[in-house]
Amino acid sequence: MFSSLRKFFASEPDPREARRPLWNAVVETARAPHWYANGTVPDTLDGRFDMISLVLALVLHRIDDEPAQGLAGVQLTELFVNDMDGQMRQIGFGDMVVGKQVGRMMSALGGRLGAYRAADGSAELRAALVRNLWRGAEPDEAGLAHVMAEVVSLRSRLAATPVSALIVADRLDGSRT
């Protein structure tokens, strides 16, 4: 009798967890020191969020290239929401504030998804990076050039990676370690 009840109380594994290695790779890539040292992106909570949003947007763009893999993009975005929620709670935000902040973060990510579709090297991409990473303050030209070059490099690596390999990867070049 108890074995038949187990199926009602046994929890199924969270299917989003299949995207956890990719989510970790997004965060690791966004936290790479070169963005902050060479790229002069502010190493602040906002700067870190902005870098995660940039890298996540580029990865989601790549996943969008294969509509059949759309669920992976949804799952990755859900991990983003869960992580941001957890980070805010860890910092000390209360329940009433967390929901509003997560909503703002999702709105910001949505805007960045559109803005970061701009062509490599374009004035539109430059403006989007300045607006989002430096919050509109004019960055150091060498830092901006570094970030723009790294965006091109990351897009190139993502484009060279089959989406089926990317969505199970634990590095953003699509490989597994």
Tell me the radius of gyration.
Answer: 18 Å
Q: What is the multimeric organization of the chains shown?
A: single chain
Domain count: the total is 1
Globally, the shape reads: globular
Strand content: under 5%
What is the percent of helical residues? 55-70%
SSE series: HHHHHHHHH
Count of helical regions: 9
Number of distinct beta strands: 0
Biggest beta-sheet profile: none
What's the overall average pLDDT, rounded? 89
Distance between the ends = 44 Å
User: Helices and strands: which structural class?
Assistant: mainly alpha
Q: Give the uncertain stretches in residue-range form.
A: none
Any overview of this molecule?
With 177 residues, this protein is an all-alpha fold. The chain has one domain. It contains nine helices and no strands. Helix 4 runs antiparallel to helix 5, helix 4 packs parallel to helix 8 and helix 5 crosses helix 6. The longest helix has 22 residues. The model has no long low-confidence stretch (mean pLDDT 89).
Q: Can you give me a brief rundown of this structure?
A:
The chain has 177 residues and is mainly alpha-helical. Helices cover 68% and strands 0% of the residues.
